Amino acid sequence: MWSSCPRFVAQEQPMAATASFARELGAAVRKMAGNKGTTWYTPHMAAASRAIAERIPLVDLVLEVRDARIPLSSECEQLRNFPSSSRRIIALNKMDLANRSQMKLLNFLQARLRELKRTDHSNYTATIMLLGIPNVGKSALANSLHQVGRISAAEKGRLKHATVSPQPGETKDISSFKIASHPNIYVLDTPGILPAEILDVEVCSKLALTGAISDCFIGQTELARYFLAVLNTSNEYRKWAKLSKTEIDISSFDHKTECSGSSELEKRQKKQYATDHTQDFVVNEVRRTLFEVISSFDGNQEDEKNSVQLIEAQFAAVQKAFHVPLESVDDTCNKVASKLLNLYRTGRLGHYTLDRVLWNSL
Ligand SMILES: Nc1nc2c(ncn2[C@@H]2O[C@H](COP(=O)(O)OP(=O)(O)O)[C@@H](O)[C@H]2O)c(=O)[nH]1
Ligand SMILES: [Mg+2]
Q1: Do residues 175 and 127 touch, judged by C-beta distance below 8 A?
Q2: CA 355 to CA 69: how far, in whole Å?
Q3: What is the Å distance from ligand 2's center to 190 Cα?
Q4: What is the spatial distance between Cα 51 and Cα 71, in angstroms, rounded to a whole number?
Q5: What is the pLDDT of residues 49-59, one digit of tens each?
Q6: Every domain of the chain and the residues it spans
Q7: Nearest CA owner, ligand 1 atom 16
Q8: Which of 25, 70, 157, 300 could potentially form a cystine with 205 if both were Cys, beta carbons 3.0 to 4.6 Å apart?
Q9: 163 Cα nearest atom in ligand 1
Q10: Can you give the pTM of this predicted structure?
Q11: What are phi and psi of 28, to 5 degrees?
């Protein structure tokens, strides 16, 4: 989804217990980042931020990429004072969930450039700078625009690739990718930037959960707990009710009992990949486990203590679903947390918009 003048409107508040989780986590992230030597605002990010500021006046369009899960919290602060002119476009990425075509975005960008450069259509060269906080998918977007781009066959043969990575901070320099000929249009992929200090602790926690801030600032266990707090107060888990009714018990393939209807091949695969959390049968078992623990919980989720108890019960239950062996408490928790976060961040545990926004306000 993209827009040149978006209007995001904040919606109702999240449940008290989830908000309190978010605040605690965010405060811990801020505290960590305040410690000498552990800030996300590295000298490299500061240098990238200056280089981007110098380039902004020279480009034709600025395409601010935001994370659709946090369309407000992923605003790029550097652009806050940028005049909301026809030169700024905001694109919401990670809507796979809504899986928009990049071709449509390319057409949209070309139309905007044509409006800006009303003169000779065939002879100009235009540049579009992709800008945004780390890990929103700028490089992935640069690659897909480059791939779908209307460029000559010879140029297609020399397609470049921007490095795409689940870790923030992977893009180190500004690089350019051709996305159209006649007129020539280039996109500039840039390193993600964050402000040196983020005052709003809830924003800190959302940036940490979505992966814009490195997990090392708070640890994956705390992040996974925050995710579970979000999950428990959402409606996503209700979609997994049907899993509870069907028998997909993966514990059965360790024993003689066999799942009815499973082929020999499936059974062998299940045995072989029992600890691979990305396998569908493991994901379904995790979903079912989470659903069943929430459904059988009779505490009050508004109550912080109850909410924490539920999360601890879920951690213990999914440890079995993931087939994580019981080692030291910390090791086990870290492994479970890492798998849970990975499934959340790849959209396999539902779709969540952490900022409260009214989409039809766009
Ligand atoms: N689910 C999903 N993941 C995406 C999307 N775009 C990028 N990613 C993933 O997000 C992570 C960060 O992407 P990257 O392009 O390196 O982000 P950048 O730091 O903004 O350049 C990578 O693991 C990508 O595979 C998307 O539209 N949907
Ligand atoms: Mg990048």
Answers
A1: no
A2: 7
A3: 7
A4: 25
A5: 999 999 998 99
A6: 42-195, 201-345
A7: 164
A8: 25
A9: 16
A10: 0.85
A11: -65, -40
